[in-house]
Amino acid sequence: MKMKIAVLPGDGIGPEITQQSVKVLQAIAERFDHEFSFEEAIVGAAAIDLMGNPLPEATLDLCKKSDAVLFGAIGDPKYDNDPEAKIRPEQGLLRLRKELGLFANIRPVKTYQKLLDQSPLRPERIAGADIEIFRELTGGIYFGEKSTAEDGKSATDVCTYSVEEIERIAHLAFKAAQKRRKKLTLVDKANVLETSRLWRKTVTNLSKEYKDVELDFLFIDNAAMQMILNPTQFDVILTENMFGDILSDEASVIGGSIGLLASASVGNENAMFEPIHGSYPQATGKGIANPIASILSAAMLLDHFNMTEEAEAVRKAVEISINSNVCTPDINKNSEYSTKKVGEFIELNITDPDNHIVN
Ligand code: IPM
Ligand code: MN
Question: 47, 86, 199, 273: which could form a disulfide with 42 (CB 3.0–4.6 Å)?
Fold first, then answer.
């Protein structure tokens, strides 16, 4: 198959990790006889520095005319520490999500047997955890009206959701649950927020179309606690934009490193694949960033192309690298493996699957 992939490396460790997933995708194309073309564009702080705009039009155009977007990371501390900054790298990512209509962000969380001891949580509590978080991505408080009073003494962020916005992601979450363990947990704050009550009502109504899925509800504060106490109770979690942002970072602790968590952002016309971690500026250029979250995001990209066997080949190669201790220092403190070495090892295990390269 012929596919056009836009590559947006972004900031910090973005370029180094994305390079590894492009290599992995090239290995897949070769082994399975596909034709993937890659075109790069700038976004985030890198784009502000060059063009004064975190999402230049050329970048957006490229994404729109590609079959998928592979995204690295975004963010730069020089903006984080400047509350007065009007232009910020993150605006590039948020606008991209909105313009591409990527309303559903899917974040799988699972444990690897080999890494059970990596998590600060007790191995027996997390063993077998396998969760898929559906985070709404283009609405809520992230995109509501924002303002700061002229005297600078107050500020407002409005949170709005429509039934339509809730329904379209809820359909996807129910369908995912049908293919998994048939349980869907809606996480909200319906004891306090109007928008959460609308989520509950809308999702409850919709559940009549998915009678084989068991639906339950949790308040976000309780969900945050349950995620740590008993993560194996969860199958698919559905939640709004900001709760999903927070809950998924928390959930990454289960897997042992945030450097392992991939995501897919999908809409009706476009799709983008990115690690859930940020730009990790302290690690930039040091070769210590974990490329696996990006590589597993590339696997989700292959799933999106209906290349199931190809996606499995990537996941298998990642598993071999974890089982062989070919990991960056976030997982293996004394590791001598750099970002690039881990990427190459995974690539090799795709190129030469009959001759599993192990350590
Ligand atoms: C994420 C990130 C982004 C978000 C930031 C960089 C805007 O934290 O993808 O989870 O908050 O959505
Ligand atoms: Mn986040």
Answer: 47
Where do the H-state alpha helices sit in 190-275? 194-206, 220-229, 241-255
- Contact 317 CB / ligand 1 (< 6 Å): no
pLDDT digits (tens, 9 = 90+) for 218-236: 999 999 999 999 999 999 9
- Nearest ligand, CA 93: 1
The two structure tokens encoding residue 276:
């859930």
**Which strands sit side by side in the sheet containing 2-10, from one edge to the other?**
35-40, 2-10, 68-73, 271-275, 262-266, 104-110, 130-136, 236-239, 183-188, 214-219
Q: Whose CA is nearest to atom 7 of ligand 1?
A: 90
Q: Is residue 306 located within the same domain as residue 357?
A: yes
Render pLDDT for 277-327 as a digit per residue (tens, 0 to 9): 999 999 999 999 999 999 999 999 999 999 999 999 999 999 999 999 999
By the 8 A CB rule, do 244 and 81 touch?
A: no
Reference 90, options 79, 82, 100, 101; nearest CA is: 79
Q: What is the pLDDT of residues 65-76, one digit of tens each?
A: 999 999 999 999
Q: Based on the fold, state whether residues 88 and 170 are members of the same structural domain.
A: no
Supply the DSSP string of 254-318, one letter for each residue. Answer: HHT-GGG-EEEEE-SS-EEEEESS---GGGTTTT-S--HHHHHHHHHHHHHTT-HHHHHHHHHHH
Q: What is the ipTM of this complex?
A: 0.99
Pocket test for ligand 1, best of 133, 134, 245 (most atoms within 8 A of CB): 245
Provide the pLDDT for residue 171.
98
**CA distance linking residue 134 with residue 132, whole number of Å:** 6
Domain end position, chosen among 211, 231, 259: 259
- Say how many domains are in the chain: 2
pTM of the model: 0.96
Kindly tell me the burial class for residue 160, based on how many C-beta atoms sit within 10 Å of its own C-beta (0-12, 13-18, 19 or more): middle
